[in-house]
Structure formats: structure tokens, C-alpha cells
Amino acid sequence: MKKKKKKTWKIKKITILILFLDLLAVAGLTLINTQEFKSFWIPTAMTTMSHKYLAYTLYDEDTVNKIMSENYIEKPTEEINLNDIIIGDTSEKKHYSSEYEKDLFTRENGNEVYKIIRLDEKKFKGYLTVIYDPSDVDLAVSSKLGRAGQSVNTLVKENNGLVGINGGGFEDLDGWGNGSVPYGAIIKDGKLIWDHEGGSGELIGFTKEHKMYLTSKTPEEAILDGMVSAVEFGPNLIVNGKVAKIHGDGGWGTAPRTVIAQRKDGIVLFLIIEGRLPGYSIGATMNDVIEILLRYKAYNAANLDGGASSTMSVNGKLYNKPSAGGEYGGRTVSNAWIVTNKNNKPIGNN
Predict the structure, then answer these.
(1) Whole-number Å distance between alpha carbons of 282 and 47
(2) pLDDT tens profile 72-103
(3) 272 and 303, same structural domain?
(4) How far apart are CA 155 and CA 140, in angstroms?
(5) Do residues 236 and 331 both lie within one domain?
(6) Which of 93, 274, 276, 338 has the fewest C-beta atoms under 10 angstroms from its C-beta?
(7) Statement to judge: residues 92 and 230 lie in one domain
(8) Is 346 inside a domain boundary?
(9) Of 55, 72, 89, which residue constitutes the final position of a domain?
(10) b/e string for 96-112 if b means 16 or more Cβ within 10 A?
């Protein structure tokens, strides 16, 4: 009798397991056929350099094309108005218009150069670096440009920086790019030092007056306009206070992000969103990024290289959790936007 009962129980357990697996299969098929999942999965896969196949693993080409056509960005088309940026007093205030203004202006440990604000949203985590004096923002470029990239940590250290974030994109065949060959143009100290195919046509940088300049002009034209530092990437998310219109998720999916922005008073913002880390932070859409930027009154803003390249360094040490390469101090990249301290302002205990 005991053997028969054991055998019957084994059959029941196998039956329960099969039913459970069937339910999972049905649930999975139901999920992948929902519009919400398609709109999340396909753009997220298609905006990676080496995992586009994940979109085609679940869906045919027509479905992928249809979803991508429904998710796109209408960028602001007007020329940036540099006269709108009036660099002025960015010291602490007595009264603030919002909790975000107070958070932004209130110094941390006596640091008059920068402040790092932790972002802890429902779906993602990240950091917003506030740079009070835009003249402290500089572009650091790999000393091995054309041969190899360098980590943001190294770029910060070698250029006497305090904080750094990754900048423009680079050739990344099969996800193995080392930052040696940047896409598009790089302007450094008012000179065009690199120009390569594959760029977006959008220059992101600063003028000699330390005003953020976003333009689709040629590098030569931009230099004549006074641009002294720039990388090529995008898209532009905010121009003259006007926000890009995002259809769906913009076709950029949900991913780690790096963004640079400037307020009307000259304060520069470095935004890093951590992502592709299940259970911790899945990443952000372009709409998510814009929402954060508007909280802190960004007037001009542009997207930089994201994904595994999204890296933030503070005092020469990796500060965020990148989706890959964290154990090596972050991926090697072509360039980085860094924070210096040109006028030896107090940085407190940071």
C-alpha cells in the first residue's frame, strides 16, 4: 500500500509541475502579445548595440518595424538662443519656489563647486550632479584617441577633475568597442580634433562664455559661433525651455541614461540613470529623463551615450552602478564631461 501511495503522490507532483509550467507558458504568451510589453521590449532591444536580436527572437520584422514607427521623438526645431542664458548668482537663497529648488541650491558639506543629489524613483535610481559655476565644466578626451579609450575614472584623474560622466558615442561592434573610435565630431579648446562618420549631426557643448550650445551646424560653423568644446550625440530633449515631443517611449526604450543640461542661471546638470539591473534599477525612458530635468528647471538638455557606457566618477572612483564593466571601473570611452575647480572654491569634506 505504501509503495502505491508513494507512486500516486509522485504522479500528482509531476502533474502539478506540468500544469504550473503550462500556466507559465500561457502567461508568457499572453504577456508578449500585449501592446505594453511589445512597446517596452522592442525599442529597448533595438537601441542596444549588440542585443537587437532579442527583438527578433520574439517578434517578426513587420511587428518590430510597426512598434518602432510608433515610438519616436519630435525634437525641438528652433535654434538655441544663447542670450536666454544669463549666468548669475547661484548662491544659496532665503526662499525657494519648490523642494527641488531648495535641494539644488543648498550646499552639501560646504561644497561650493558641486552637489550630488540621489534619485530614487519607483523604476530606477540615479544621480544628478549640480555644477554651480559653468566655467568649471570641461571636456576630457582620451589621450589614446584613435587607438583606445579610457575609463571616466582615468579621464577625471588625468585632467584634475572632481566629477565626470561619459560623453559621446563610439564604434561598438558586437558590444566590444573600447572607445578608440568616436562617432562624429569632437571639439576641444576651440579646435576640431576629431571628425568621423556615424555621428548624429547634433553637436552638444559649450561656448567660451560657458553657455551650453546645441546645434546641427557643421563643427567649423559652430567654432565660428564661439563653441569651444563639443561631442556629437543626441537627441536634444529641451531647447529654449521647449520640450521634445515623445511618442511612445521615443524609440529609445528603457535603459541606463547619461544627460547633460543647463538652467537659465547657468547651473549645469549631469544626470546619470542606472539601469539593466533587475531588482535594483531597470532604467529610464526619455519621458522619465525629461520629467526629472523639468523638476530642476533645465532650460537646454541633450542625451549623451547611454547603456553600458553610462558612467559617473567622483574623485577618480566609480560612483554609480553601470550595467556592465563595473568590476573594471567602468567601460573605456572616448571622452567625458568633467567638473574641475578652476578658482579653488571650497569643496568641504567631499
Answers:
(1) 15
(2) 999 898 999 999 999 999 999 999 999 999 99
(3) yes
(4) 6
(5) yes
(6) 93
(7) yes
(8) no
(9) 72
(10) eeeebeebbbebeeebb
